Amino acid sequence: MNIVILAAGQGKRMKSALPKVLQTLAGKPLLWHVLRTALSLQGKQTKTGPIVVIGHGANDVKEFLAATIQADSTFAKVTTVLQAEQKGTGHALLQTLSKLDVREPTLVLYGDVPLTTKKTLAKLTKLADGVHGQDSALALLTQNLSNPTGYGRIVREADGSVRSIVEEKDATSVQKAIQEINTGIMVLPTNTLKKWLKALRASNAQGEYYLTDVIAMAVMDGVPIRTVQADAEYETIGINSRDQLASLERVYQLNIANVLMNAGVSLADPARIDVRGTLECGRDVFIDIGCVFEGCVTLAAGTKVAPYCLIRNSVIGKDVVIHAFSHVDGAKVGANSIIGPYARLRPGADLASDVHIGNFVEVKNSKIASKSKANHLAYVGDSIVGSRVNIGAGTITCNYDGVNKHQTIIEDDVFIGSDTQLVAPVRVGRGATLGAGTTLTKDAPPNQLTVTRAKQISLQWQRPVKIEKSVSKKMPKKLAAESVKAKK
Ligand code: UD1
Ligand code: MG
Predict the structure, then answer these.
(1) DSSP letter string over 90-156?
(2) Is 88 in the pocket of ligand 1 (CB under 6 A)?
(3) Ligand 1 centroid to 92 CA: how many Å?
(4) Band of the pLDDT at 473, cuts 50, 70, 90?
(5) Quick one: 303 and 444 in the same domain?
(6) Which of 173, 330, 354, 418 would bridge 392 by S-S if both were Cys, CB 3.0 to 4.6 A apart?
(7) How far is the CA of 16 from the centre of ligand 2 (A)?
(8) Which residue has the CA at smallest separation from atom 33 of ligand 1?
(9) Same domain, 154 and 293
(10) Looking at residue 363, which CATH number applies to its domain?
């Protein structure tokens, strides 16, 4: 089967600098969703793979495709065809003719209809195979909508057979009342499609070559037209404006929330979770409101995530507690650890079990062994931290000399007093204690107290007295001079 995805339109109604098909749903461009579904139909495809018609913002779309292929080689089969001027959906499909295998039917998908399922498309292609023999039926995906505004309407004869599709802008008021709409998704017999596309005329309200006009041509040619509807309405929603995008996002997120809840996850509010990628959860995970999950995230059984956390590309172990407002990115967190509130785990943070990372603590590219703690206001970067280490408030690993990054090694059972700076590269030996306020520039030996600290002194001293401005003006010269001296 040939698969063509129309994605050259500007999407004027979005009022955006970005081509419409690159607007994101669940963190991925609309076109990504369509391509993923198209590729899932792979078994039935010809060698060429899905053909994307690009035009408006073609370079942006190409850049997106290149980046996507780099991240996921299954997208490598995708090819593009340029529609230099956007003269309508029929004109867009016309650009792909030389690439289509005439022996196979052609499935047309729209880059702005992102959530059609594989199941629905399989149903549609089967319908096109039809009893009339391969390559002879035209299958249309339609939908009954309570509010059909903006869509092309399916016009039927009295006997129920499809006569034509009429676009909203060309429709009479009677036709506008039709609730069965054209989703744009169809399977066409390729050999006759070529003839139809060449015969299209742009004599309509928008002056465009409408793909939808081939329906009336098929009727004339006696090609059977069969229709089917998707299981769910959201599968057929086309995105033309920002409000449509926002409401489809909520539908998508609610679907994910339901899948999670069915798998044994508790959500404080299924309407207030956002998954932009994949979230895998063990049993009895609890997720409070306002959390965002990006990329691939795993939460093992019993883990609790408090309100307003962002977790991206991370693996969180069993029974972990992530307190509110934490930011976890590219991290591994071992079982029973406690993170946050207001913690920041950056890429390469690799925590073993029972690790505590408290408020305003940032960990980057560091391995922290079990039962170690950094509970308040610290920066641990490019470090290897042993077990049972206590990192006091205000501790900073000074990993960057302005040019290069250096490593800090803190061995097991070390106690680091508050407000300590470890100037890397540096090593703190097993069981060592660093006194509060130490600036460590050389290795600290094991089991000893190392401290760098200015000697404490106490002096007799008179705290200056504040001079009241209005009074000083009237002050006798001598007194004023004395108070100036005191100030110095
Ligand atoms: C289209 C259908 C309409 C249907 C609706 C479903 C036509 C004429 N109308 O209308 O019947 O109800 O989709 O969502 O087909 N595109 C190109 N090149 C162009 C024009 C469009 O590639 O010259 C692409 C767009 O990028 C988009 C898709 O085709 O992905 C649909 O175009 P759009 O302008 O959104 O058509 P609608 O007005 O939504
Ligand atoms: Mg559209």
Answers:
(1) HHHHHTTGGGS-TTS-EEEEETT-TT--HHHHHHHHHHHH-TT-TT--EEEEEEE-S--TTSPEEEE
(2) yes
(3) 10
(4) low
(5) yes
(6) 418
(7) 15
(8) 9
(9) no
(10) 2.160.10.10
- Please state, for a pLDDT cut of 70, what percent of the chain lies above it: 94
CATH (domain of 27): 3.90.550.10
Question: Are residues 201 and 271 located together in one domain of the fold?
Answer: no
Same domain, 195 and 294: no
The finding on whether 344 has its CB within 6 A of some atom of ligand 1 is: no
pLDDT band for position 133 (cuts 50, 70, 90): very low
- Residue 462 forms part of a structural domain: no
Q: Which of 290, 285, 265 is nearest to 275 (CA)?
A: 290
Q: Is 376 a catalytic residue?
A: yes
Same domain, 133 and 271: no
Mutate to test the pocket of ligand 1, among 110, 165, 227, 239 (most ligand atoms within 8 A of CB): 110
Q: Tell me, yes or no, whether 459 lies in a domain.
A: no
Residue span of the structural domain in which 54 resides:
2-236
Q: Per the domain annotation, does 472 fall within a domain?
A: no
Same structural domain, 292 and 394: yes
Residue 89 CA to ligand 1 centre (angstroms): 6
Residues 6+ apart with CB under 8 A from 23: 11, 14, 16, 29, 30, 239, 245
Please indicate, yes or no, if residue 125 is contained in any of the structural domains.
yes
Helix, strand or coil for residue 471? helix
- Asked whether 210 lines ligand 1 (CB < 6 A), one says yes
In angstroms, the Cα distances linking 448 to 124, 414, 440 are 75, 10, 14
Task: Please report which helix (H) or strand (E) contains residue 464, including its range.
Answer: none
Q: What is the pLDDT of residues 411-463, one digit of tens each?
A: 999 999 999 999 999 999 999 999 999 999 999 999 999 999 999 999 999 99
Q: Are residues 91 and 122 in the same domain?
A: yes
